[in-house]
């Protein structure tokens, strides 16, 4: 198989599982209820989440990932037939070819509708693994064990799955809610600092669109929030997850919110330019870094549209910058980025749409902004013409 590397499994099945003390359980009570657990040493919970009726479990993980994978396999193998599938790293795993390799592996191993997928990895792994689970036999259960801060607070929660195409990021996908998400903070202890910093992009975003306490914590503690043992980091994780859970429960399929609120679309704050930047850089810019850049851009855009003042724009620079995230970008001409933004999932025909603020934690949608505003906003973050 070209993109997936299978590893051996062991026989056995059953339920049960351990439970860590001090875990925080955030309930997602939508059409398909599940729990997001934040704590430490959570792998023993997996058999309980998967249940007694599961026989086979496919564990999808980056091929180079070893240390975080071991406790997951140790927890599963006494209870289930385990098929471990190693994937390409990062966004390169999110292709139709890799998904097809996974489908072939599931078919060869006899996976049925009562079996399940477990993802262990970052956001690209949860996106691809969730898509495989959503499309195999029209949907089998999936449990996410995110190993990065970004995946914990964003990709693993909410049921969005997807793969990339040559035209852009996440243009093919489906909604498929997980059976559970285990945010094991132990996995952050060995996460490279650059990945922790990138993960804060989605965390800080939540502060602007919904929970300003996030901004207060980041501004008060600065880079200290990047200490995996810090209680402040745990609070930020829990607050960011809570923001996403609240939004997703109200608008799972991004059909719109109430009383002028953008609904789930609010989670895409900063993402329209961010996805264009990622594509321009061949995904060598981390997603959270691109979100920080995109958020400052959209703040500049909102100011030009008369939605927010300069003070709130500057707070974007201050909050993202406090944790070491970039707030400027000059890596591509604006016309190249604009062409990508026009095929963004939020666009409607030729009409560009941006989630903007009308005040702190007051999100709205700006449709069809003047191109001069877009160019001025890009210049304001350092971009070339």
TrEMBL record:
- Residue ranges annotated as compositionally biased, kind Gly residues, are 9-19
CC cofactor: NAD(+); Co(2+); Zn(2+)
Which part of the chain is the 3-dehydroquinate synthase C-terminal domain? Answer: 199-347
What EC class is this?
lyase
Tell me which residues make up the 3-dehydroquinate synthase N-terminal domain. 87-196
Write the record's keywords in alphabetical order, separated by commas.
Amino-acid biosynthesis, Aromatic amino acid biosynthesis, Cobalt, Cytoplasm, Lyase, Metal-binding, NAD, Nucleotide-binding, Zinc
Q: Which family does it belong to?
A: Belongs to the sugar phosphate cyclases superfamily. Dehydroquinate synthase family.
Q: What does this protein do?
A: Catalyzes the conversion of 3-deoxy-D-arabino-heptulosonate 7-phosphate (DAHP) to dehydroquinate (DHQ).
Q: What is this protein called?
A: 3-dehydroquinate synthase
